[in-house]
Amino acid sequence: MPKISIIPREEKFFDLIELSAKNMVSTAQELDELVNNWADVDNKVARIADLEHEGDSIAHQIINLLHRTFVTPFDREDIALLAHTMDDVTDFIHSAADFMFIYKTGRPGERAKELAGIIVLAAKEVALAVPHLRHKSEMKQVIVHCVEINRLENMADVAFRAALGELFTDSKDMANIIKWREIYEHMETATDRCEDVANVLEGVALKNA
């Protein structure tokens, strides 16, 4: 006999979305810890990989629940897009950390630390925003956090351009330039994906306010 869940499916969607956001914050914090305390690198990168896999699992659970649910708390397309974009954030965080390890870059500089810090702040804003989706009366709060995520993404763009400029100015080692350019691109893309999440959240908030 199949198991019968006593938790309404609508609540499950919100629970999984919030779990994904928390996982995103944990992944970002692990990256921040990695770049600021460059020791035990292999184990730290392994933890980030585990969190990225957890993010994949949560995204799959959301999509599977979509396939089994007739009535959803908001548009099906928005739920699917939210699941995928949040998962993308952890993917790019993992890529940045993984390439630091694979390329044996050595201790990251101040720009990597700056970008990692911005990623943490943006992820935290997502985690603060998503619980408000449960209540139509709180949709305006979602937009407040989306505005802050957009501001942080702009900060990341500035930091990214500065990082590239310094990289090509300060280093004559072409291999090092290529390595760090790719890592910076992954970090900056993580903030871009946070902005993508914010755009989805803002759309949901405006449709359901």
Automatic annotation (TrEMBL):
InterPro entries registered for this protein in UniProt: PhoU-like_sf, Put_Phosphate_transp_reg, UPF0111_domain
PANTHER family: UPF0111 PROTEIN YKAA (PTHR37298:SF1)
Family of this protein: Belongs to the UPF0111 family.
Record protein name field: Phosphate transport regulator
Organism: Dehalococcoides mccartyi (strain ATCC BAA-2266 / KCTC 15142 / 195)
